[in-house]
Amino acid sequence: MGTDVATFARQLREDGIEAAKIEAAKILADARKEAEKIVNAARTEATKVEKETQVRIQQNRHRSEDELRLVARDLINTFRKKIEEIGTRLLKGKVAEGLNDKEIIRTAITELLKTQQSGQKWEITLSAKIAKPLAEAVAAVFRENGAAVQLTGEMAKAGFEMRVAGGNEVFEVTEESVTETFRKLLSPELKKLLEA
Q1: Which residues contact 170 (CB under 8 A, 6 or more apart)?
Q2: What does pLDDT average to in each consecutive run of 10 residues of the chain (196 residues)?
Q3: What is the reported pTM?
Q4: Which residues pair with 159 in a beta bridge?
């Protein structure tokens, strides 16, 4: 054994340093692998969270848009109803004014009788405002159209109501009926206009 203690110590030291370097390299490689796993897991989790967040953001955006559409629809419906109410009120006054005009009533009855079979007996109720001054003119219109008429009373609203004597079908031309007819015609057109 020709190795002296110094050489032996040096050899031990070199072997120890070399073993430590190998061990350190192995630990460092393991640490790097572990760090890479942690970083990859963190990236995967971050991507997953980001996707989930984007999905939630989209869902919230869609929900908000749907809610806004519902609010807009409700506002438009409320606005349309208000316009209808105002229009109906304004129209009702004009219709009442027109249905208190003797010539308009005479013309309306004449046109209505043209669509009915002749020789029938009719019952008619006139507006109190025009009943007395118009009674004879209305009776003449019925006679001209080959029909008989009986005045059955007066009504508080403007216009007239008539029916075949003993019949159930009533022809009502009053401020309410005419205004309601116009409202029914106006409502779909107003809806189209507001939704455009």
Answers
A1: 161, 162, 163
A2: 70 79 89 92 93 94 93 86 83 86 87 82 88 86 85 88 86 88 79 70
A3: 0.54
A4: 174
